[in-house]
Input
Amino acid sequence: DQQVKQNSPSLSVQEGRISILNCDYTNSMFDYFLWYKKYPAEGPTFLISISSIKDKNEDGRFTVFLNKSAKHLSLHIVPSQPGDSAVYFCAASAMDGGSQGNLIFGKGTKLSVKP
Amino acid sequence: DAGITQSPRHKVTETGTPVTLRCHQTENHRYMYWYRQDPGHGLRLIHYSYGVKDTDKGEVSDGYSVSRSKTEDFLLTLESATSSQTSVYFCAISESKARSYGYTFGSGTRLTVV
Output
């Protein structure tokens, strides 16, 4: 029973355009959402997070949007750069409701940014 | 990097043999985690620790045990390795349960069970 879903295994975008990565969740107790970026042969690195009391958080080229009613979040990268090519993981946690504050990850979306 | 080291980086072992993976941190963080990454499954939590000698099971703990005798070391043991445990294993650390900044991950151990 997957609580965090990334339904697109891959996404290809042209350099300079916007990349939109999507994530859906089922557990209404989740109160923190995070995005991680992973290059091959490296560990995931933290990118950006959002609390459930907000609907948007921005950090440079990266913006995360949260729609609690739809249980959906998205990561926007503008403008996309070839160095953004990586696997992006969506993660969520809740102090109650099963995850005990631990991060639960989606399956990841592989982003390819073409020059 | 961020003060977290996994060893070995690569290992090939035979079915039925015991295997221990080590995670070492120099950040003095309280929380440590073991995840595995598999194609089509993303990252799944195996075990975690919230202090010395304090550990708990994650989502996919069957076939694995852990130990934490010192703050800096978190060991993952496969008592009798199986082919289904072929995976990339990541250790992660966090200072607290303040979850807005997530975890810091190690570089991973690629384990192949033949």
